[in-house]
Amino acid sequence: MRIALVQFASDVDAAANRRTIATALEDVDGGSVDLVVLPEAAMHDFGSPDHDLAAAAEPLDGPFVTFLAEHARRLGATIVAGMFERTDGLPYNTLVVLSPEGSLVATYRKIHLYDSFGYRESERLRPGEIAPATFTVGDTSVGLMTCYDLRFPELARSLMEGTPTPDVLLVPAAWVAGERKLDHWRTLLSARAVENTVYVAAAAQGGDRYTGHSLVVDPWGSIVDEAHDADAVVRADLDPQVVARSREVNPSLANRRMRST
Hints:
The chain has 261 residues and is an alpha/beta fold.
């Protein structure tokens, strides 16, 4: 499966973000990619702590999802992106998955809100139900996580208990920059890959506020490719035979004696 991770710094102007994404997707050749992943909050940035995300939120049939559907059809690829989903109260931090035909085939509402490092995401957003989400691209099963979810290995493990077992975990993120944060980012992504013998592909926001460093980790824990902090497109071929071989050599999933349920 050919994957492209689009890294950019989103704005609090949703229309401007759509223009930025459209420009970035011009670099993603139609017919040569199966899956395109955009960061968390690609629709609209978090903004300042007092910025009203409820006012910015959109429904699942709103301008952002409609825009993604058009580009999914144009590219003939599945697109995953982060948005703020409108509700009657606080919005959800939601990942949407658009098929190559432009249909909304999956959503994932972020379970673990970022109440950490002095920030309170739960004051502005509501957590999703504990419902791990997967979808398929061709014959490949893909699991979804968002940013802070990365610090909770039980979510990744619960995704691996699905049928079929995912070969890829996606982590769209707006990983806030700071001391040790890049080390945490790389370490946790690699850990999730190694302990689950799975590819992990993380599309992050870049710029001054966020860490950037979108990357792909293989099931052995090796970084396949990685961006820095500027706008970038990271491409990689994810080979199911690499996953199968890693699980043959390191059958840790099969050897487990403790389950998450």
